[in-house]
Amino acid sequence: MLTKIGIIGGGNIGGVIVQEIAKRRLSRSIGLVDVKPPDMAMGKCLDIAEGIPVINTDITINGSKSYEVIRDAQIVINTAGVPRTVRPDGSIPTRDELLAINLQITDTVAEAVLSYCPNAIVLSIANPLDAIVFRLFQRLNIHRSRLIGMAGVLDSARYRYFIAEAAGVSVENVNALVLGGHGDTMVPVRSCCQISGIPVEEFLSADLLDKIEDRVRNAGAEVVGLMGTGSAFVSPAWSAIEMIEAIAYDKKKILPCCVLLESEYGVNGYFVGVPVVLGANGMEKVIEIKLADVEKQAFDRSVEAVKKTVEEVRKAVI
Ligand code: APR
User: What is the pLDDT, as a whole number, of residue 317?
Assistant: First the structure.
């Protein structure tokens, strides 16, 4: 069992992650830090701690506005950042439009990790995902196995959900992968999508699959538009939990994650969503799969979009 998991950012996503770690007893203790006054993290953790006798979970939960609270965490999850929200004129920002503000926050997060848990495996959720993970890599300078972005698990869950709904089958029967960047160019990989091992095309028409894949690409904005304030938070938190469980239990689970590519998929030096093996050492292996021609082209386009945001990161003067 892990002794400690740290969470940076105790807003919507961070709050659900703390609850789920507690419920599932994924570590002996949790440290949550958030800068929100007067001491939002402490308040949130006190609320959860006061409930754990009811769910019979004997773990220690500490919240604080001081980063000290994540000291010695073995896994640290970064949710610190501003989420997307509907603007007063009704428009919805892209994830990339969060870059400037979230980059500043990311530098503080990196400093905290270096000071208090430099050996932790870092899972990052803040958007724009691929660029923020790249920035963390610049600042932390750690081996790629210890820095992993969460997006593919969520995007693939959305794909699975829409397919299950359209086919009228259990979500448990649907296997799906979404690769590439976590933006409008993400690539739902139809050739990997199966219902109980049977190719999805045997259940749904090409036309309907096109529509579903479009919906997957815009699923984040759909939720932002409906909620009015803030962005999706339960599904991203559960997605991160699936990754934490894979690491905590050394499952060697194959999940789509945003990791540094070193020549795999013809990409070098960029963080992009691909299937990887997650285990006790973090990202233990990149799995290279054969994509259909049209999927490979879409993947390459998505990588180009990731490179563009990374250029913004490189140029950013903070
Ligand atoms: N250190 C710690 N916490 C911070 C910092 C910082 N430097 N800066 C901001 N935070 C905190 C905020 O105080 C807030 O409580 O991060 C929290 C973010 O929570 P929410 O605003 O509720 O956002 P959430 O929905 O949880 O999304 C967090 O994940 O999916 C992405 O786009 C989303 O970038 C956003 C992030």
Answer: 66
pTM reported for the whole predicted model: 0.96
Digit-coded pLDDT (tens) for 118-171: 999 999 999 999 999 999 999 999 999 999 999 999 999 999 999 999 999 999
Residue 127 CA: nearest ligand 1 atom is 34
What the chain holds in terms of domains, given with CATH numbers, is: 2-149 (3.40.50.720), 152-315 (3.90.110.10)
- The pLDDT value given to residue 98: 82
pLDDT of residue 87: 86
- Ligand 1 atom nearest residue 84's Cα: 32
**pLDDT computed for residue 93 by the predictor:** 82
Closest CA to 271 of 259, 288, 283, 257: 259
143 in catalytic set: no
